[in-house]
């Protein structure tokens, strides 16, 4: 069964360091999402890609976060510099189509980030 | 501001009990409502609802949407310890496929 792949699964870093997360969506899925989930809360959308284009990055803290999906397949989310408040689970999801908002998203295993 | 509210926030039951989880929403440009189950890992998809009054069913789980009253319920009958998880409700908004998640309901099923 096709799955969304993410790496690393766990990351511990010191504040002010740079971190990067990688996501490979299900093959053929044009839409890719990055979410942040703080413990005890639901996921919050950070950025959404349709192919290689950003569709929504309104909740992405652009002073320290960046995301790219250069070839419209896999994607990288970067934080520089990391802050203590960035400690969370970072989830990647993909869906086969976007538009109309009626397509289920499939999630990867997530990267659990701890900033010390 | 768009929001999705789930209740209760946590629930403890015994095996065999039936539970009902609630999700209410205030979202512009509603497109769909989705339920996910999250154990100590990424959310896994359960149901997607787009029309009022049509029950979706999978085994012991079922869900229904009321677009007039802006809520959905997720029912689990004959609960098992393996049902212990966080259940997330999300609403698909606008034409971009964006999901707005509730805070989740933590269900614990005791033997």
Written description of the protein model:
- The complex is a heterodimer of chains A (116) and B (111).
- Chain A has strands at residues 5-7, 10-13, 19-24, 31-37, 44-50, 53-56, 65-68, 75-79, 88-95, 106-107, 111-115.
- Chain A is mainly beta and 116 residues long.
- In chain A, strands 2, 4, 5, 6, 9, 10 and 11 form a 7-stranded mixed beta sheet that branches. A 4-stranded antiparallel beta sheet of chain A has the order 1-3-8-7, with no helix packed on it.
- The model of chain A has no long low-confidence stretch (mean pLDDT 91).
- Chain B has strands at 3-7, 10-14, 19-26, 30-38, 44-49, 56-58, 61-66, 71-76, 85-93, 98-101, 105-110.
- The N and C termini of chain B lie far apart (41 Å).
- Chain A binds chain B through residues 4, 31, 33, 40-45, 48, 50, 55-56, 91, 95, 97-110, and chain B through 4, 29, 31-32, 34, 36, 41-45, 48, 50, 88, 90, 92-104.
Topology diagram in text:
The complex is a heterodimer of chains A (116) and B (111).
Chain A: E1 5-7, E2 10-13, E3 19-24, E4 31-37, E5 44-50, E6 53-56, E7 65-68, E8 75-79, E9 88-95, E10 106-107, E11 111-115
Parallel strand pairs in A: 2-11
Antiparallel strand pairs in A: 1-3, 3-8, 4-5, 4-9, 5-6, 7-8, 9-10, 9-11
Chain B: E1 3-7, E2 10-14, E3 19-26, E4 30-38, E5 44-49, E6 56-58, E7 61-66, E8 71-76, E9 85-93, E10 98-101, E11 105-110
Parallel strand pairs in B: 2-11
Antiparallel strand pairs in B: 1-3, 3-8, 4-5, 4-9, 6-7, 7-8, 9-10, 9-11
Q: What is the ordering of alpha helices and beta strands of chain B? A: EEEEEEEEEEE
Number of strands of chain B: 11
The residue-averaged pLDDT of chain B reads 93
Task: Note the beta-strand portion of chain B.
Answer: over 45%
Low-confidence stretches of chain B: none
Global outline of chain B: globular
The radius of gyration computed from the alpha-carbon positions of chain B, rounded to a whole number of angstroms, is 13 Å
Total helical elements of chain A = 0
């Amino acid at each position: 069964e096709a799955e969304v792949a993410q790496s690393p699964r766990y990351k511990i870093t010191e504040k002010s360091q740079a971190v990067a997360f990688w996501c490979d969506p299900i093959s053929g899925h044009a839409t890719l999402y990055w979410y942040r989930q703080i413990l005890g809360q639901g996921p919050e959308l950070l950025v959404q890609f349709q192919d290689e284009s950003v569709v929504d990055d309104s909740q992405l803290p652009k002073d320290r976060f960046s995301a790219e999906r250069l070839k419209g397949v896999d994607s990288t989310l970067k934080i520089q510099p990391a802050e203590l408040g960035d400690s969370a689970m970072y989830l990647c999801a993909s869906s086969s189509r976007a538009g109309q908002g009626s397509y289920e998203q499939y999630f990867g295993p997530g990267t659990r980030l701890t900033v010390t | 501001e768009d929001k999705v509210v789930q209740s209760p926030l946590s629930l403890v039951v015994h095996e065999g009990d039936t539970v009902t989880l609630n999700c209410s929403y205030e979202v512009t440009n509603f497109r769909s409502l989705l339920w996910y189950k999250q154990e100590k890992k990424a959310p896994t998809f359960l149901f997607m609802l787009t029309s009022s009054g049509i029950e979706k069913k999978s085994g012991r789980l079922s869900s229904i949407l009321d677009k007039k009253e802006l809520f959905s319920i997720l029912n689990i009958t004959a609960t098992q310890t393996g049902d212990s998880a966080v259940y997330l409700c999300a609403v698909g908004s606008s034409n971009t496929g964006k999901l707005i998640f509730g805070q989740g309901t933590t269900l614990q099923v005791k033997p």
